[in-house]
Amino acid sequence: MALLEIVKYPHAVLETPGEPVVAFDAKLKRLVADMFETMYAARGVGLAAPQVGVSRRLFVMDCSGGQDPKQRVVLINPMVMRVEGSQTGDEGCLSFPGIFFPVERSLRAVVTAQDGRGERFELDGMELTARCMLHETDHCDGIVFINHTTPLKRQMVKRKMRRLGKQNKWV
Ligand SMILES: [Zn+2]
């Protein structure tokens, strides 16, 4: 396994819709293992392939932060089937270090996806799980979380990210 470099905004891959995954092979298995390792090392609860520079529709997620093995899950070619209710809470993103702001999301989300062997399954999540699945499925579609805020806030975040990028101060 290897740590992958996390791509920071405004890298173009983050705003490019990912290609569907078609080959459930050893290369995919290694990518998934590396994405889990990278996510845990960065103390994130979700990481999508575009965030490591791979323009494919998959993400890894563990809302327990490594505490509960049952919550370690990979969703390949995810599709949001149903949403219910709403919740507003602070959200961050490993591609926007140091940036947090309130984002309104559905309270519950039902997502279907394929697992590492290509078997289709359904995940029905509430609260943080729903928030994470929606945030990461957005990444698979080339959508970043600042699209869920006001245009004014979006401009502020963009300016801050460009400034940090020029100073090379991302950590
Ligand atoms: Zn993100």
Report on the structure:
By secondary structure, the chain is an alpha+beta fold. It has a single domain (12-167), classed as Alpha-Beta Complex (Peptide Deformylase), CATH 3.90.45. Helices cover 27% and strands 25% of the residues. It is built from three helices and seven strands, in the order H-E-E-E-E-E-E-E-H-H. It has helices at 26-41, 127-140, 151-167, and strands spanning 46-48, 58-61, 73-84, 87-91, 101-105, 108-114, 120-126. The strands form two sheets. It has a five-stranded antiparallel beta sheet with strand order 1-2-3-6-7. Strands 4-5 form a two-stranded antiparallel sheet. A hairpin with a 5-residue loop joins strand 6 and strand 7 (120-126). The longest helix is centred in the C-terminal third of the chain and has 17 residues, at 151-167. The mean pLDDT is 95. The site of zinc ion has 6 residues, from helix 2.
Question: Which keywords apply here?
Answer:
globular; 3 helices; alpha+beta; 171 residues; five-stranded antiparallel β-sheet; Peptide Deformylase; two-stranded antiparallel sheet
